[in-house]
């Protein structure tokens, strides 16, 4: 009886293991592309549309700087036909496993599609360049071209399909880039300062002409100290910045401390809303796409600062 019960338990454990730990794929007949961030998955989907199954490991609200691969992620990575990740040390805690995976399968860092001279150098964290490349739409255009190239190399039989979709999507991105620049231009020069939880908006500021300040530096690995908060409070109060912004993938704790600090100094700083910094919004919503997330950010920034 005891043996019977033990074997029943073993079967149950095994069944649970396979049910929870499988790659979770919807279809096993399609080519399976795994990406780290949702933004990269969105780029691949725009090129491959329904031809491939595309899955991002990091969902809405997930901070890629701190993200560690779960057991289920390892299974997905092993099952993937192609893996795309951001690179330039965005996925700080996954870099090693992605590099070792690259020895046995097609694994690409999309930042390799951008000329190094266009990347912002930094000595602020363990990487050498700012990894937030998606915030300059013109850099993201290079990423889309790179993903298209790699997919065409790997699956030449679908070359025409990829090419057609890429041309269509690049046209959308070029128009979208113009819209972003025009919207940011509506903010008066004197108040064109974007203060956020961490330094995710360096590329955005550079290309669209905004001063940017992040409380937490380029990566969220190191937390700000009281000194950083006090310095930012001083700076905001003296420059009369109207609003600062929270981020969907970063804790609001420190930003709230800045608002409180400004209040004590008699400067009524407002929270301008939440920006999608390092992760997109929920799947199925407009913010769950690359263009939708940036559009949400731009609208929030313009309303908050104008
Ligand atoms: Zn970041």
Overview of this structure, please?
The chain is an alpha/beta fold and 306 residues long. The protein has 2 domains: 2-176, Rossmann fold (3-Layer(aba) Sandwich); 181-305, Nitrogenase molybdenum iron protein domain (Rossmann fold, 3-Layer(aba) Sandwich), CATH 3.40.50. Helix content is 46%, strand content 11%. It contains 10 helices and 8 strands. The protein has helices at residues 2-21, 38-48, 71-79, 95-101, 137-154, 159-185, 202-208, 226-239, 253-264, 290-305; strands at residues 32-35, 53-56, 82-85, 106-109, 193-196, 211-214, 243-247, 270-275. The strands form 3 sheets. The chain has a 4-stranded parallel sheet, sandwiched between helices. Strand 3, helix 4 (95-101) and strand 4 (106-109) form a beta-alpha-beta unit. Helix 6 packs parallel to helix 10. The longest helix has 27 residues, at 159-185. Mean pLDDT is 91; it is low at 8-21. The structure holds zinc ion. Zinc ion (ZN) binds next to loops.
Q: Any key phrases for this structure?
A:
single chain; 306 residues; alpha/beta; Rossmann fold; four-stranded parallel sheet; two-stranded parallel ribbon; globular; binds zinc ion
Quick summary:
The chain is α/β, with parallel strands linked by helices and 306 residues long. 46% of the residues lie in helices and 11% in strands. The strands form three sheets. A four-stranded parallel β-sheet has the order 2-1-3-4, with helices on both faces.
Topology summary:
Elements: H1 2-21, E1 32-35, H2 38-48, E2 53-56, H3 71-79, E3 82-85, H4 95-101, E4 106-109, H5 137-154, H6 159-185, E5 193-196, H7 202-208, E6 211-214, H8 226-239, E7 243-247, H9 253-264, E8 270-275, H10 290-305
Parallel strand pairs: 1-2, 1-3, 3-4, 5-6, 7-8
Helix pairs in contact: 5-6, 6-10, 8-9
This protein binds zinc ion (ZN).
Zinc ion binds next to loops.
